[in-house]
Amino acid sequence: MGSKNKSFSKMLSARLTSLRSTLATKLPPRVLLPTLSRCYIRVSPILKEHISHMEKDQLSFHQSELTSFFLTALDFRAEHCQGDLEATAVMEGYIIDCLLAMVMKLSEVTFRPLFFKLFDWSKSHSNDRLLTFYRLADHIAERLKGLFVLFAGNLVKPFADLLRQTNSSKTSKPKCSLLLQYVLDCLRKIFLYDSHGFLSAERADALTGPLLDQLENTVGGAQVYQQRVTRHLIPCVGQFAVALADDTRWKTLNYQILLRSRHGDAKVRFSSLLVLMELASKLKENYMVLLPETVPFLAELMEDECEEVEQQVHKVVQEMENILGEPLQSYF
């Protein structure tokens, strides 16, 4: 009887392995992804609530096991995404939401090794992991606020490298645009919640060029570029300026924006004006010291061959007058 059971178990195991392989290789993503998503969607809220009710000593005891589970679950994008970014994003969102429940119960000491384990995980196997990690980092930054800034120093070089690597108009891959969005959003939160002087001169220098080069990065096409600039780049650069908190650094930042306003592409000149307006609105009266170098560039743009750019520069001047509370004619 025992040998029959063993033989049956072996046969069943082989059939299940075969079935799993067939499901994984034969089903199209439009069928498999929603099904897998429903499984995670049903299980994730249960695990999330379970983690929320865990005592700290229980969580500490099971943290290694939970970390292993999340590292496997977070590989969903890398393992199963065949181009259906929308379905993958929904699925991944549930996993991230569940992981955040654990993150919020950890102390700084217990969160640190988890974060760097996730960071190391993101650097191997697949570029899809980068997407997942920086989306997760963006969510963690939103929840931990100033505490996350304490860990963000290690991300400065990777942030700068990613901004450079994704700065190419030769590709229109949606994943590239998505990664840029997560990086810019995460950076904005780091700058927003920085109350400990995170932006040293070295870090500011490392990020200024790669950030402002995004004004020239038309990856994804004109519409995606416009959305990325208005929704992600402008808020990020504006908060970057606030976090710089230094006249000399503001001058460098402002001048780098002004240089982009002479770009050969009208879209880039137009976007530069939008960033300039954001800079003035964030710095308010502090922007006065930057006016003398700004005005010659604005004067040039008033004669721009592109009508949209010409109209926008008048809006910028008007907005600056409102912010600074005085007319700017005397500067021209």
From TrEMBL:
<dbReference type="GO" id="GO:0045943">
    <property type="term" value="P:positive regulation of transcription by RNA polymerase I"/>
</dbReference>
<dbReference type="GO" id="GO:0030686">
    <property type="term" value="C:90S preribosome"/>
</dbReference>
<dbReference type="GO" id="GO:0034455">
    <property type="term" value="C:t-UTP complex"/>
</dbReference>
<feature type="domain" description="BP28 C-terminal">
    <location>
        <begin position="56"/>
        <end position="198"/>
    </location>
</feature>
<dbReference type="GO" id="GO:0030515">
    <property type="term" value="F:snoRNA binding"/>
</dbReference>
<dbReference type="GO" id="GO:0032040">
    <property type="term" value="C:small-subunit processome"/>
</dbReference>
<keyword id="KW-0690">Ribosome biogenesis</keyword>
<dbReference type="GO" id="GO:0000462">
    <property type="term" value="P:maturation of SSU-rRNA from tricistronic rRNA transcript (SSU-rRNA, 5.8S rRNA, LSU-rRNA)"/>
</dbReference>
<dbReference type="InterPro" id="IPR012954">
    <property type="entry name" value="BP28_C_dom"/>
</dbReference>
<protein>
    <recommendedName>
        <fullName>HEAT repeat-containing protein 1</fullName>
    </recommendedName>
</protein>
<keyword id="KW-0698">rRNA processing</keyword>
<feature type="coiled-coil region">
    <location>
        <begin position="299"/>
        <end position="326"/>
    </location>
</feature>
<comment type="similarity">
    <text>Belongs to the HEATR1/UTP10 family.</text>
</comment>
<dbReference type="InterPro" id="IPR011989">
    <property type="entry name" value="ARM-like"/>
</dbReference>
<dbReference type="InterPro" id="IPR016024">
    <property type="entry name" value="ARM-type_fold"/>
</dbReference>
<dbReference type="InterPro" id="IPR040191">
    <property type="entry name" value="UTP10"/>
</dbReference>
<keyword id="KW-0687">Ribonucleoprotein</keyword>
<dbReference type="Pfam" id="PF08146">
    <property type="entry name" value="BP28CT"/>
</dbReference>
<comment type="function">
    <text>Involved in nucleolar processing of pre-18S ribosomal RNA.</text>
</comment>
<keyword id="KW-0539">Nucleus</keyword>
<keyword id="KW-0175">Coiled coil</keyword>
